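Exercise: predict the fold of this chain.
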Amino acid sequence: MDFLSSADLILKKTLTTVPSGRPRRRRSSKVKDEPNKEEVDEDDQYISNILQELRVELDVKRREEERLQREIADVLTECASGSSGGEQSRAFGMAVSRLNNAMLVVEADAKQLAASLRTISRLADNISGKVSALDVAKTRVVECLQLAGDMHDLGVCSEEVDQCINNEDYEQAAQHIHRFLTLDRAVFQFSSAADKGETYLAGQSVSHSYEILTNATTRLKEILERKLESAVDTEDVAAMQRYLECFGFL
């Protein structure tokens, strides 16, 4: 314990006897501080220069970006307009193709219609010719029927006119003669043709009836004239009216 205590005392004495160093001078501290400040200024200047260069480069890049964006926008616009024009061109081409197909169909239908119309025209001409032939045949049939009816009436009138005159049925006799006078001339032309050798018997019958009715007409007129004069002399008004009505048929 004594030994340790002695050692501590010796160490303390030794430490207390070491002289303290000389304090730093302010000038020396200023000398040391000035290089630090210069270094700081140089760093600030370097950083400022770098920032300035970065700003300039950033501005250049921004302008280049804007230029590229404008170019991209122009290219996209051109592409859009080009694709739209292409779509319109394709749509127009498809419309023209459809129109061409429709025109081909219309042309085929028109040719078929023209062929049908030609066929119908030929059929119409054929039918028209047949209708014309039928009209001619109908006209001839009507003429034949009328001629046959006139010949029948002529025969009836020629058979009954003399009997009516003899029975003093002057009204009926006048009607028979009136029918004879209104007959178609074709009946008497038929009589002329019969005299030339065509249908001799029928023509002879027509000629005979014609002579009978012609004579009956002359005979009835003479009788009516005498009867009318007698009625005038006797002032028989009813008889005069009767005979005058008979003259109206002649």
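Check your answer against the key: The two ends are 207 Å apart (CA to CA).
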